[in-house]
Structure formats: C-alpha cells, structure tokens
Specification:
Low-confidence stretches: none
Radius of gyration: 20 Å
Number of domains: 1
Number of strands: 0
Structural class: mainly alpha
Distance between the termini: 71 Å
Number of helices: 5
Largest sheet: none
Shape: globular
C-alpha cells in the first residue's frame, strides 16, 4: 500500500511541477501541436529533475534539513573530492549552476535544478563540438588578458 502512495505522490509532484515551476497553464498556447511539443519537452525536463533529489534521499520540497544542507555545501566547496557520492556532487553542481546561493533556508527547487541541468548540457555540447577550439582559446587567454590590461 505504501508503494502505491509513493507512486501517487510522484504523479502529484510531476503535475505540481508542470503547473507551478514550468507554468504550463499560463503559456497561452492555442495550437494543439505546439501544446503537445511543449508538454513533451516539459515532461522530459520534469522526469529528469524529479528523481535527482529522491536518489539522494533529500526532501522533495522546502529547505534542506541541517545535515543534508551541510552535505550539499561540502559537495559544492569540494567538487573534485572522490570520497563524496558522485550523485551528490552532480546535484551540488546543478544547484550551484542553477543559481542556488547556499543560504540555509533557500530551497533547491525544480526550476533551479533544471536551470543547472540546462547549463551542464550546454557546456557538454560546447565541449563536444568545439573542444579543440576551446583548448586553443584557453591556452591563449593569459596573453589576451595581459594585452587587454596593458591597454
């Protein structure tokens, strides 16, 4: 019975996410094809964000409990620490890139996590498509900065 309640609660969280975080009702779309495309994209976004917190045993809503808050803060300050859970490190990366200010009572909500995930995906795409170019630019960055500072 508890399993059914948990599954029902996930469905509730999903619809809450669509309605509040992604503002599906306020989109003012009238074309069925556009609404369907938007729903598909939002469903993919929601189903990729919702499991992240539950994997780590974090609460779905609200500010983090004190112990979880400390765990996430450590993961943000030590992103390369191999002793930390990789899922926690990824969560902390998403929260950080999503704009979480790491204040004690600030929740890490779905919109913030999705914003962080989109940034990670954009970085991964840029590295895949422009890796050698970015390496060359980063190698010449000190010289470029030095020439700008001298001007």
């Amino acid at each position: 019975m508890a399993t059914f309640y948990e599954l029902r609660w996930l469905i509730e969280e999903f619809f809450h996410l669509l309605q509040s975080a992604y503002r599906i009702e306020g989109s003012h779309l009238t074309d069925a094809a556009k609404i369907a495309r938007r729903l598909v994209l939002l469903t993919l976004a929601a189903t990729s964000v919702l499991p992240i917190k539950s994997t780590l045993g974090l609460p779905a809503k609200g500010p983090l409990p004190a112990a979880d808050y400390e765990r996430v803060k450590i993961a943000i300050t030590q992103p390369d620490n191999p002793n930390l859970d990789p899922n926690l490190r990824f969560f902390a990366l998403l929260a950080n890139l999503g704009g979480w200010l790491a204040r004690r009572n600030d929740p890490i909500g779905p919109t913030l996590l999705m914003r962080g995930l989109l940034k990670v995906l954009a970085i991964a795409d840029a590295l895949q498509r422009f890796g050698p170019t970015l390496d060359n630019l980063l190698a010449s960055l000190p010289q470029l900065l030095a020439s700008i500072i001298r001007v």
